[in-house]
Amino acid sequence: MPKFTPADHAALIRRYFKACNDADYQALVDCFTPDAVHYFPPGLPEIPWRTADTIAKKWIWCVSELGSQWTIEKILVGHDSPEAVIEWTHWKNKSGTALRGDEWYRFDPDTGKIAEIRAYYAAPADKGVKINELFDFDYAGRGYHLKSE
């Protein structure tokens, strides 16, 4: 049984975000177990996303239709279990808006691939603001991205 380190898990999350930003189907699928599930808060259509194929196709759609790009703000990786949590920003460049949030990852201990993602948004998606994020939090002062890369 392979042993995957916290560094392996962090590297996989970074590869996953690169694959999302590149809209690279095969690279996305390669990050997941075939039966992976991506959970979201209520309000999005067709959730949760089930299977690596579905997850890859949905992110590719977001890049194409919304101009989506994502940045990782922070990564914390478990040292006693195959889990991680990150903070991210989802830049929706075609509308000039963004959404901040967290994701919890569960990795398959045999393959090291992502088996599950649970997404949590910093705030409900408010169509009246440009960037959905925590109110009065000093994003700039903490070194967060303030625009899409």
Automatic annotation (TrEMBL):
Pfam families hit by this protein: SnoaL_2
Xref: CDD domains: NTF2_like
Occurrences of domain SnoaL-like (ranges): 13-117
Stated name of the protein: Nuclear transport factor 2 family protein
